[in-house]
Amino acid sequence: MTTCSGIDATTGSGTEITFNGDIESVRPSIARPSVWIAPGWVDIQVNGFAGVDYNSPATPHEEIARSIHVQYAAGMTRFYPTVITGSPDDMLAALKNLSRAKDTIAEGVAMDGFHVEGPHISPDEGPRGAHPKRWVRPPDIDEFRRWQDATGGRVRLVTIAPEWPQASRYIEAVVAQNVVVSIGHTGAEARHIADAVSAGATMSTHLGNGAHGVMRRHPNYIWEQLAEDRLRASFIVDGIHLPGSFLKVALRAKGVERAVLVTDASSPAGCAPGRYRLGEQDVDLTADNRVVLAGQERLAGSALKMDRGVENLMRLGELSLADAVRLATVNAARAGRVPGREQGLVAGDRADFVLFDFDAATKSIKVQATYVGGRKVWSL
After folding, report:
1. I want to staple 285 with a disulfide (CB 3.0 to 4.6 A). Which of 36, 163, 268, 275 is the partner?
2. Three-state DSSP class for residue 111
3. Enclosing domain of residue 141
4. The pLDDT of residue 31
5. Average pLDDT of 62-81?
6. Is the peptide bond before 123 cis (omega within 30 degrees of 0)?
7. Residue 304 lies in a domain
8. Is residue 350's pLDDT more than 90?
């Protein structure tokens, strides 16, 4: 049995936590600790990190392990490696590679499931984002079954554009397998979004991005998703993908309880500016920290780390520390159905923690230690 103390980021009170793999007890701390404690960050959309591309079937497992360790340093404890639109063979092979890595590396415990973002998205410029157009294709439940067969059922989240004629039937079939369906990379009309929600979709993927540069004032698919209370929404809060004004309005519309922080990090995250890979495409990390398709201005994921995302929620979204932490932890776990992480610092949840220093004046976080399943996996 191990004990850890800190100022609970969600309450501001001194807390002492006793744990093994799970939290055994939580009680007030006798002395006020100097370090803050929160549930470890949960990121349900990560395309790559530290120069490592999760979309490549050839990515070595030791490189995946290294990329996870770099994320531990930012307080991440559970995440969904995310495979984007590609050829059927490449997507399947990438998922197989990730699944084998989960089974063979110690850091695989952090890969709590997989997110497949595409290929059943809009082929249109704007909504398609950086996904290669030649591989966009209609929803295919047989393809979904191949993903699950290849990974032992580890695909936990699928992003789809609901305007495809087959979308509702596909969503119903996927949701029946206890998999979360999220709306994203879409040009959908209101009726498509309503049908998708009725079929079981429960989330919007990086709302405000993967969209046309110019659209109708109203109605449009961003307003429709913001107004739909049955949809949670994830947001890339790097100060690049979304302006603070949209973020504040979106958070007010969804409410803190239905908003989720994601990084949408791709392989350049945590690296120096230069050229990297995202699936079959080259991407550039620019000097101002944007990840773009090589030689273009089109964003291709982000270079965001979760600790910086929590800071940005406070600075750009004007959230409290408690609410920012909520978006990065229990909200993300509930949206992605990450088991054992949906309650927070309470007995019975997994012993995933992040210890950090917090400067309230500057809204700055400095991670001191990260625990996954009761084991310290990183410390300063």
Report:
1. 268
2. strand
3. 40-342
4. 81
5. 98
6. no
7. yes
8. yes
